[in-house]
Amino acid sequence: MSAIYVHLPFCPYICPYCDFAKWPHRGSLAHDYFAALVDEIRREPAFAARTLYLGGGTPNTYGCARIADLKALLDAHFGPFSESSIELNPELVAAGDMDAYARAGFDRVSIGVQSFEPREIGTLGRRHTQSEVTRAVSAARQAGVRSVSIDLMFGVPGQTVQSWGRTLKSAVTLAPDHISAYGLTVEEGTPFWQWREKEPGVFPGDGLEADLYELAIDELGAAGYEHYEISNFARPGHRCAHNENYWANGEYRGFGVGAASYRNGVRWVQSRELGSYLQALRDGVQVPAQCEHLQSAAAAGEAVMLALRTADGVAFEAFAQRYGIDFLEFYRPVIRDMQRDGLLAVDGERARLTQRGRLLANDVCGAFVTFA
Amino acid sequence: MSTLRPDIHARQEVATHIRNFCIIAHIDHGKTTLSDRLLETTKTIELRDMEEQMLDAMDLERERGITIKAHPVTLNYRAKDGQTYQLNLIDTPGHVDFSYEVSRSLAACEGAILIIDAAQGIEAQTLANYHLALEHNLTIIPVLNKIDLPSADPERVMGEIEELLIIDRDDVILASAKNGIGIQDILEAIVARIPPPRGNREHLRALVFDAQFDAYRGVVSYVRIVDGELSPGTKYMSMAHERSYECTEVGVFSPQMRQIPKLEPGNVGYVIANIKSLGDIDVGDTITGTNHPAHVPLPGYRKVVPMVYCGLYPNEGVEYSDLRDALEKLKLNDSSLVYEPETSVALGFGFRCGFLGLLHMEIVQERLERNYDLDLIATSPSVVFRVTKSDGTVELIDNPSKLPASNYIQSIEEPYVKATIMTPPEYVGAIMEITQSRRGALSNMEYLHDGRVIMTYEMPLIEVIVEFFDILKSRTKGYASLDYELIGYREGELVKLEILLNAEPVDALSSIVAREKAAARGRALTEKLKELIPRQMFDVPIQAAIGGKIVARETVSAMRKNVLAKCYGGDITRKRKLLEKQKVGKERMKRVGRVDLPQEAFMAVLKLEE
User: Fold this and answer.
1) Does B537 touch chain A (CB under 8 A)?
2) Which CATH number belongs to the domain containing residue A312 in this structure?
3) Residues A205 and A312 in one domain
4) CA A97/CA A139 separation, integer angstroms
5) Which of residues 553-592 of B touch A (CB under 8 A)?
């Protein structure tokens, strides 16, 4: 078990595109949740993990003191970690916070920026200013955080190639170690979904999305960032080890409401209902979860789906060792079609998505998945 | 002309206590309800068994509210004169596709109950069935049904009956099959008005008006004995096929099959011999004794020829052999279904299937998909074109992609129908519009007293089978009724319209159309296909071509970006399932060349005006 994820689901406000398990911050509820979470962690038999990731929600809705307590508990239980990340909302980062996170042992911070264009920030329902972002990044630097990452978003209604270009420039100027550039995904059940039902024309088509994505790949590549996963770019030595574990189909344990875990081939996702999560911990019973155990070809197909997202792709030897499948032989017809269409590049050791393949990754990955 | 004219040289007998009749009506005028009521009143079926009887019928028939297969039944009725009569009710299929079967059922009767809905009045099929019954010299018992409906207008409909059917209103029985009104009168009228059957006992002649296949007993022929007798041990032959059999069992329907010692002149019942395939005995066939065969068969037999053809292909995941087996099994009980293997460049191995009409086609497809759980691709329906080639030889073309190149063609003929449409006057304009756009020529127009109009058209069959009925119904809010009959072949200015995807012709999408409409149809078809074909990883040009000349072009532009932005621990299962779902969608499509086509694309030609 190499990775620990902890879900902190509260936010100061809710963004209209967000599909995660999250709730607006309410003191007593956040307090109860924290207690339950500590309980859940304490119940787990201790083991040594390599990476830690605190995600949300907005983890820093909790003050840095609470976070430091939590970190100490996790260290004691699963540490020491070679990488400890925390997601931060820039406008909630107060003076001295970054030092506190660094002191608590976080060596990687991921700052939710999304855009440097005020109009797009507004469209996304976020409330930070550009100066808050700048302040957060420099505070992290001063605190000596080893890796600073920022999240950006493209495909936002109203976004143009020019405005996205400006955002990319601003990002590069800040010189973070890592940039995630996500295409906006409109998920069912979110206000954005309803918006798109009503005004589909406001949302960019896949043509513009492709242009925006390609611009990100070009600009960030030119600035020295390695495009190491579909949506992730890093300076040398700054890939996110925690996330790489997911794409390598490695094991992980997730704590908190809606968190997913993967162990011994079994993946389970805990209830996304806050009430039933809290109740289960109050009652001292297992958190209700949906569980699946993929077998042979289905498990291998899923591993291909994950591995192809990365620049390293599928390594044949390791793949054969782990899944007992000769990749080139087993998927021969699919590989042939994908190569012909210029979506997949194959050399003696690995298969990787081409640039075109990254744009159409669903078509490629979809061809490898087998029904569970 | 009586189809049952007895052999005048033999001694005639009259089966005084037998009446053979059928019920004819426009769809929904109450045929099934009246049949049920007659069964109930004569205690042929106990009330408590009624429900069961209904459930036993084929579910497709129930759902569509039509009778596909004819079921005879014998009712024993004690009349007011104190005598008991054997009334043989021969049910008739209720759709124009099965008009030949209808005619054979009528030929087995001496009389017909003609039901007319007291609210809707006379409709196109009422007229068609009535005239068919008159052709068979049947005694007609007119019944005005549903007289207790609030919307009933018996006075108006009586007027129509007098005007259109030339029937005296005093002969009309007022009834409500649903509420049991007039049932007794109908039964009495059957006894009093319909003549008893006559025949001799010497030369066996029996009309096969239907046949079913039973897995254990082989073919069960439904017969009406005209002359002679039939009992177990009788050696008989089919006059159409000239094959001999030995009868092993005869019986009647009451309503289940019940064995009796022998069938006599006038009887309606069943015959079982060792006949293994429905193809060995035809509806309309005459059975006669092998030792003393009759000189002439009963009139009216013809080989049933399919009117409508389409290709049926297994979709991905369906085995060709499963489709073949299912067709074989269906054919056992449906001799009018024909099929032969064909190969399509686009769809691979499948079958070209022939049907009596569009409904028959839909029924067969539905049975294949439902009862045999097959996922099928059907190409758009075609008729049989008669092509005279430059060398003078004539070829029948049931598959548009097989049409020879135009320089080898001297002329093409296509089947025409006489279509009778009855409509309230306000829809005359709409009907003219939709018939004109389908090359219909108005041959007659008649105004009735109640203001309704009978419009008679001559138009190509292909124009009728392609969505005509649905459009007629929707444009007239369901008020117009349609009946049609084949009137022969006529030469037409016809061309092959080809569809090319990615510059490759797709054989399964080609059609034969009128030259004057070809370009417009090509445009409509390419536009429709553009809607139906999902975006692929590359541009897909869709072209329509006539004789190699492109007349329309659309492009499905390539999908440029299709990627999930995030895939972390909590997303993995969900994202994989999403990809799986996309994959299922893709696999339901047919890959033609490099293009994934949804099944609907092959039926696009049917849905151009939706």
Assistant:
1) yes
2) 1.10.10.920
3) no
4) 8
5) 559-570, 572-573, 575-576, 579-580, 582-583, 586
List, for residues B92-121, the tens digit of each pLDDT value: 776 767 778 888 889 999 999 999 999 999
Whether A275 is covered by a domain: the verdict is no
A163 and A89 within one domain: yes
Q: What is the ipTM of this complex?
A: 0.90
Entry pTM: 0.70
**Of B538, B562, B569, which is closest to A362 when you measure between CB atoms?**
B562
The DSSP letter of residue B403 is: P
Which chain A residue has the Cα nearest residue B585? A366
Question: In chain A, which residue's Cα lies nearest the Cα of B583?
Answer: A366
- Under DSSP, is residue A286 helix (H, G, I), strand (E, B) or coil? coil
Which residue ranges of chain B lie beneath pLDDT 50? Answer: 1-3, 52-57, 65-66, 610
In-domain check, residue A42: yes
State which residue of chain B sits closest to A154, comparing Cα positions.
B565
DSSP string, B255-284: SSEEEES-B-TT-EEEEEES---GGGS-TT
3-state DSSP percent of chain A in helix, strand and coil, to 5: 45, 20, 35
Instruction: Answer whether B345's CB lies under 8 Å from B381's CB.
Output: no
Say whether A306 and B568 touch across the interface (CB within 8 A): no
Give the residue from A164, A334, A362 with the most B CB atoms within 10 Å of its CB, the best one to mutate.
Answer: A362
SS3 B160: helix
Beta bridge partners of B165: none
Judging contacts by C-beta atoms under 8 Å, the chain A residues touching residue B316 are: none
Domain that holds residue A366: 308-371
B218-262 tens-digit pLDDT: 889 999 999 999 999 999 998 988 889 999 999 998 878 899 999
- Is the Cβ pair B565, A230 closer than 8 Å? yes
